[in-house]
Design a protein that fits this description.
39% helix, DUF3631 domain-containing protein, Rossmann fold, 5-stranded parallel β-sheet, Arc Repressor Mutant, subunit A, DUF3631, 16 helices, globular, 10 strands, 2 domains, 3-stranded antiparallel β-sheet
């Protein structure tokens, strides 16, 4: 598509928007000092940084957001903002270093997952539906101008260990395609010549239950819910609704195309780090290009939704849940230097909301606990207890590095280890 003259409301050239205040970032908190928490009566409180002026781009995003909300009830306003930005980001894929996945998951049928995918199909750049499509067909369809992959009923691909094992190549393709310049090599032709195929493309996957951890970790996660009584949406009718969605899609593409180079050069302030920052960066850049209230709302959505996924991860027994629960036990025991294995297991099982009392046939065992902690380089040993005796157990200081790395965002810790976990 050839670049066209910007609409009357768009700003030519590179937009220099005012710096947006990002919660938790250096430079946005009051300086520490003896009276840092005190505001003199005659001194007004610091005013919030105003949003940049709206542009034609922000008007397009507002229109897209309203269109999505007509047909689907998203779990939060932040999720609605994230979906809107993700759709717009598909029209700038050549600019991105990372291709964020959109994981649209729900606990049961009729949560709106497929309906959201219907709307995405008519608004993203070059949609490619991958139901029953082989990985070979997918990576042979990816070019320098990649399509947007759309996978419905992803639970039929990854829902059980047997299904996941059968579709390991598709999972590998989706994992590799999150980052630019990750290729798969296959032999082609009668002479079996090795050929590299690109994998980089944005993708949306919808299904019941969580997707494999490696895909969720590369995704903007939308956790859908079934509509409650009194909630209603507009029925989606192809003949009536698709023309309007296509018109909006084309206007977004026309706005975005002249901004490719600018989008590729931007390095925005991010409220998160590491892979979460890689995944959310295209959405934040789209928001900064659009201006208006979108830069602020995008960062709020990013911080809030990433934090929610970190907490959800701690609730998964196979992830950092065991570390978080052990930290709660040590806090409840007034940060003792060590606990015997038997005492630690007993206290873990006391938490009625944890899985440890019903883990396996007789609850979590010492051998299973040791196997879980071994991946974090934590091993049991001889420890001296408060009564002076020595027993097999765990020292608190052996957990400090793992706690800092794998479960840093515990907002509150229960003093009673038998009480429900806080996160």
């Amino acid at each position: 598509m050839q670049p066209t003259t910007p609409e009357p409301h768009s700003a030519p050239g590179k937009a220099a928007w005012p710096t947006v205040a990002v919660p938790g970032r250096p430079g946005h908190a009051p300086e520490a000092g003896p009276e840092a928490d005190e505001v003199p009566v005659d001194q007004p409180a610091e005013e919030a940084v105003p949003d940049p002026a709206p542009t034609y781009g922000s008007e397009l995003l507002n229109e897209l957001r309203a269109q999505v909300a007509q047909f689907v009830i998203l779990p939060s306003q932040q999720a609605l903002d994230a979906v809107t930005l993700w759709v717009a980001a598909t029209h700038l894929q050549p600019a991105w270093q990372h291709a964020p996945r959109l994981a649209v998951v729900g606990p049961a049928k009729r949560c709106g997952k497929s309906r959201l995918l219907d709307v995405l199909t008519e608004t993203v750049h070059e949609p490619m539906l991958t139901i029953n499509t082989t990985p070979a067909a997918v990576f042979r369809s990816i070019t320098d101008e990649p399509p947007t992959l759309l996978v419905d009923e992803a639970d039929t691909i990854f829902g059980t260990p047997k299904q996941a094992e059968k579709n390991e190549e598709m999972r590998g393709l989706l994992n590799a395609g999150h980052q630019r310049n990750r290729y798969v090599t296959r032999v082609v032709g009668n002479d079996h010549t090795p050929h590299r195929f690109a994998t980089f493309a944005m993708a949306a996957l919808a299904g019941i239950g969580d997707l494999p951890d490696t895909i969720m970790d590369r995704s903007v996660v939308i956790r859908m819910r079934r509509r409650a009584e009194g909630e209603s949406v507009k029925p989606f009718r192809s003949r009536r609704d698709i023309p309007g969605l296509h018109d909006l899609r084309d206007r977004i593409a026309t706005w975005a195309r002249p901004l490719l180079d600018e989008a590729a050069d931007l390095e925005p302030d991010m409220p998160v780090e590491d892979r979460a920052a890689d995944t959310w960066e295209p959405l934040i850049i789209v928001a900064d290009l659009a201006a208006g209230s979108w830069p602020r709302r995008a960062r709020e959505a990013c911080a809030g939704m990433v934090a929610a996924e970190v907490e959800a991860e701690e609730d998964q027994p196979g992830e950092a849940r065991i570390l978080a629960d052990i930290r709660r036990v040590f806090v409840a025991q007034r940060e003792v230097d060590s606990l015997s294995t038997d005492e630690l297991l007993h206290l873990l099982r006391q938490n009625a909301e944890s899985p440890w009392a019903e883990w396996g046939r007789n609850g979590l065992t010492a051998r299973e606990l040791a196997a879980m902690l071994r991946r974090y380089d934590i091993k049991p040993g001889n420890v001296r207890l408060a009564d002076g005796t020595q027993r097999k157990g765990y020292m608190r200081n052996k957990f400090l590095d793992a706690w800092r790395r794998y479960c840093p965002t515990v907002h509150s810790v229960n003093a009673d280890p038998a009480a429900p976990a806080s996160g």
